[in-house]
Amino acid sequence: MNDASDDELVARVALGDEAACRLLVDRHLTRMLALARRMLGSQADAEEVAQEVFLRVWTHASRWEPGRAQFGTWLHRVATNLCLDRLRRHGTEDIDSIPEPQSDDPTPHEELERSDLARQVDRALQALPARQRAAVTLTHYQGLSNIEAAETLGISVEAVESLLGRARRQLRAALATERDEWLRKTGV
Asked: Residue 4 class from Cβ within 10 Å (0-12 exposed, 13-18 middle, 19+ buried)?
């Protein structure tokens, strides 16, 4: 069963095959958690979103139409929409009140080695509007092409490129401000 395609596994899930569902979770959970953590800035919220994504796989497997879209793209779309819904429900928060994203496997040594630049990028990413954050997360962190990101977000490729352009400009400006602040504090 490990060699089965995602489409074959979804068909088995539609028949109530729990082992097939576990295999889909094993294949895709890490990426769904990473996507949700980067979008929401919270490991706990990311875990809730990932759980909801796979609950939808279980409950909607019978509706899956192989060949209509890639299963991975559909999962990314479900996760992204759940994240965007959560962000809309919670509204905009003060950037200082958003918790720092946790690494996937934090150890004290890894936390000490974690660079200032990575924290600054995460803070800047969290400050982006939700749709821009989704576009950056899908293309840069999840490795989706602009076409796949557009399909996931339900928008045109041109709209994804526009979101990415605006996000890059905002990130560049935010990171320049962070760099200037760091230089001022360190006296370099």
From this structure: middle
Strand locations in the chain (E) = none
pTM (2 decimals)? 0.63
Identity (one letter) of the amino acid at 54?
F
> What local confidence, expressed as pLDDT, does residue 115 receive?
62
Contact 56, 78 (CB under 8 A): yes
For residues 99 and 43, what is the distance between their CA atoms, to the nearest angstrom? 9
CB 129 within 8 A of CB 179: no
Contacts of 126 (CB under 8 A, 6+ apart): 41, 95, 98, 101, 133
d(CA 80, CA 153): 7
How far apart, in whole angstroms, are the C-alpha atoms of residue 29 and residue 61? 17
Q: Return the percentage of the chain with pLDDT > 70, whole number.
A: 80
How far apart are alpha carbons 16 and 59 in whole angstroms?
Answer: 10
User: Which residues are CB-contacts of 80 (< 8 A; sequence separation ≥ 6)?
Assistant: 35, 39, 134, 138, 152, 153
Give, in order, the Cα–Cα distances in Å from 39 to each of 30, 33, 110, 124. 14, 10, 22, 12
User: In angstroms, what is the C-alpha Rg of the chain?
Assistant: 18
